[in-house]
């Protein structure tokens, strides 16, 4: 079932939302490693000042401080702006590149420890790198490439320098660095999977909460609709029953007095018949909705010539139109459909009855034409029209438009006709739409595919 309404914007894919949340998590958790970059530089410089030229050590420390300050500013800006999905990937790549550069600066400190040819300094460099590399796991694992590049930048210069030395002690340190890299990469992957699962569960929970809220709203709306239905049904069903009682009392009183004429009896009977027809329409609407709610409505398709159906509708509704001073025009057609004749007749009955009810003067037109591989069946009227803000709700159950000439004084009614049209069209696989302008009438369209399965 489709209506003439603008589609809502599609929701962002779940994978993109997860990546964006991981990007935000990467920036939030980076404060730990950024603080370490600030805090550890001074003790490292203090320990290494006897083995590394002061100017080189000062330049190294200044580079780390400037880079870390720049990373802090970028991180704060990202978290403050909450960058859009399309831009978050660029920010993550930039963050990763800065992490790799920072790791390389720490790797240069490890390289200096190896080149000092001091065993104590070599051990210190290994411990320093192990601490920095392991401490970065929780901070950078929200995006594995960020951690992988940073860890390689830290450990590769130290490992290659140890391998270049070639003696037993340096080879042991190289093997330790390689094991450290493998173990930390493993824990980084485990942490990433854990973070991704947590974020995915969070979005699933939010979606579940949204579904529950929508279901709550639907139940609340159904409760309101039920209240409206009971009020409308109480009025619209009581009114014809009360009228029947009055007409019956008139007949009974006149019969008791012995002064009823055939003309009087005929007049009262005709009025009773009119009331019964209205009551029958109300009950038919209720039964239609009840059967569809209980999934008892069955679709029995066969070939149907629309022209024959249109002629039957013209014969049924033309007297009603003439009685109201309206012109009913039914255009001939050569279109045939594979459909359920009874359900399609019920759809057009509701549309024609609705058009006649809401057209105080002018004409009502029923026609069909081929359109987009199917048949477009339309009911036009020159009636009161529908306000733009009501086009979205005109097919809702228990909703009745204003301005019907035959509406009850209270303005209420069951408002099931167009709701039945929508639901029956859905059963048949048809599309229903409406165009209207206040004071200029309305056009209800039913698009039905033209297809005949092989027998």
TrEMBL record:
<keyword id="KW-0597">Phosphoprotein</keyword>
<dbReference type="Pfam" id="PF02518">
    <property type="entry name" value="HATPase_c"/>
</dbReference>
<dbReference type="InterPro" id="IPR036890">
    <property type="entry name" value="HATPase_C_sf"/>
</dbReference>
<dbReference type="InterPro" id="IPR036097">
    <property type="entry name" value="HisK_dim/P_sf"/>
</dbReference>
<dbReference type="GO" id="GO:0000155">
    <property type="term" value="F:phosphorelay sensor kinase activity"/>
</dbReference>
<dbReference type="InterPro" id="IPR004358">
    <property type="entry name" value="Sig_transdc_His_kin-like_C"/>
</dbReference>
<dbReference type="InterPro" id="IPR005467">
    <property type="entry name" value="His_kinase_dom"/>
</dbReference>
<keyword id="KW-0472">Membrane</keyword>
<dbReference type="GO" id="GO:0005886">
    <property type="term" value="C:plasma membrane"/>
</dbReference>
<keyword id="KW-1133">Transmembrane helix</keyword>
<feature type="transmembrane region" description="Helical">
    <location>
        <begin position="55"/>
        <end position="74"/>
    </location>
</feature>
<protein>
    <recommendedName>
        <fullName>histidine kinase</fullName>
        <ecNumber>2.7.13.3</ecNumber>
    </recommendedName>
</protein>
<feature type="transmembrane region" description="Helical">
    <location>
        <begin position="147"/>
        <end position="166"/>
    </location>
</feature>
<feature type="transmembrane region" description="Helical">
    <location>
        <begin position="95"/>
        <end position="115"/>
    </location>
</feature>
<feature type="transmembrane region" description="Helical">
    <location>
        <begin position="172"/>
        <end position="192"/>
    </location>
</feature>
<feature type="transmembrane region" description="Helical">
    <location>
        <begin position="31"/>
        <end position="49"/>
    </location>
</feature>
<dbReference type="InterPro" id="IPR003594">
    <property type="entry name" value="HATPase_dom"/>
</dbReference>
<keyword id="KW-0812">Transmembrane</keyword>
<keyword id="KW-0418">Kinase</keyword>
<feature type="domain" description="Histidine kinase">
    <location>
        <begin position="232"/>
        <end position="452"/>
    </location>
</feature>
<keyword id="KW-0808">Transferase</keyword>
<dbReference type="Pfam" id="PF00512">
    <property type="entry name" value="HisKA"/>
</dbReference>
<dbReference type="GO" id="GO:0009927">
    <property type="term" value="F:histidine phosphotransfer kinase activity"/>
</dbReference>
<dbReference type="InterPro" id="IPR003661">
    <property type="entry name" value="HisK_dim/P_dom"/>
</dbReference>
